[in-house]
Amino acid sequence: MKLEKLVIASQNPHKIEELQQLLNPMGIEVLSTQDFPELEEVVEDKETLEGNALKKARYVAEATGLPALSDDTGLEVEALDGAPGVYSARYAGEGASYQDNVDKLLKELGGVANRAAQFRTVAALVKGEHEFTFEGVCKGEILKEERGDKGFGYDPVFKPEGYQETFAELSSAIKNEISHRGRAIQKFVEFLKSDK
């Protein structure tokens, strides 16, 4: 698919910079919602990651008249039947800090032997009438205590499969390569290169 301009439905400077590095070499001008101060904050109230990603991308595409890319991510813990999932950012309640969410997760898993978990990201591209989604998954486990000071959210307690370090201990280059978001965005980039 040919794109000349793309609006990232995000205010997150790290996410925007990461996408600019991937897409600028392809000749795509990457804008973000920061370039459109009149846009309103989209309430993520859907029951699925796909629903939230599509809701944000649809709103930004309609408001700007440009193709829009959005994503939503959840941490899915096996022993908690997939929780916190779509509620990962507000697991400990509205306005909870990253630390509040991590504390609640560790408390819920206290004494639980099965610590298997995965991060799942769904990226959504909306261009006019066309909508596409791309999913990325990173499997791993939840540790019993926090390690590392890089990253954000649940990174200090999530150890990806095949690594001894948590996401918060890995370099951003390695994390971006193996992470759920990195994998979803890689599928998106491959889709753009495939001339569909």
From TrEMBL:
Q: Does the keyword Ribosomal protein apply?
A: no
Q: Which GO terms describe its molecular function?
A: dITP diphosphatase activity; ITP diphosphatase activity; metal ion binding; nucleotide binding; ribonucleoside triphosphate phosphatase activity; XTP diphosphatase activity
Give the EC number.
3.6.1.66
Residues reported in the UniProt entry to bind Mg(2+): D72
**CDD domains assigned to the protein according to its UniProt record, in alphabetical order:** HAM1
Active site, UniProt feature? D72
Q: Tell me the residue numbers annotated for binding substrate.
A: S10, Q11, N12, P13, H14, K15, T73, F152, G153, Y154, D155, K175, H180, R181
**Gene Ontology terms describing biological process:** nucleotide metabolic process; purine nucleoside triphosphate catabolic process
InterPro entries xref list? dITP/XTP_pyrophosphatase (IPR020922), ITPase-like_fam (IPR029001), RdgB/HAM1 (IPR002637)
Q: How is the cofactor bound?
A: Binds 1 Mg(2+) ion per subunit.
**Reaction it catalyzes:** XTP + H2O = XMP + diphosphate + H(+); ITP + H2O = IMP + diphosphate + H(+); dITP + H2O = dIMP + diphosphate + H(+)
Q: List, separated by semicolons, the cofactors it needs.
A: Mg(2+)
Q: Which UniProt keywords apply?
A: Hydrolase, Magnesium, Metal-binding, Nucleotide metabolism, Nucleotide-binding
Entry GO CC = cytosol
Q: Which family does it belong to?
A: Belongs to the HAM1 NTPase family.
Function as written in the Swiss-Prot or TrEMBL entry? Pyrophosphatase that catalyzes the hydrolysis of nucleoside triphosphates to their monophosphate derivatives, with a high preference for the non-canonical purine nucleotides XTP (xanthosine triphosphate), dITP (deoxyinosine triphosphate) and ITP. Seems to function as a house-cleaning enzyme that removes non-canonical purine nucleotides from the nucleotide pool, thus preventing their incorporation into DNA/RNA and avoiding chromosomal lesions.
Q: Describe its assembly.
A: Homodimer.
Q: Which HAMAP family match?
A: Non_canon_purine_NTPase
Q: What is this protein called?
A: dITP/XTP pyrophosphatase
- Classification lineage: Bacteria, Pseudomonadati, Balneolota, Balneolia, Balneolales
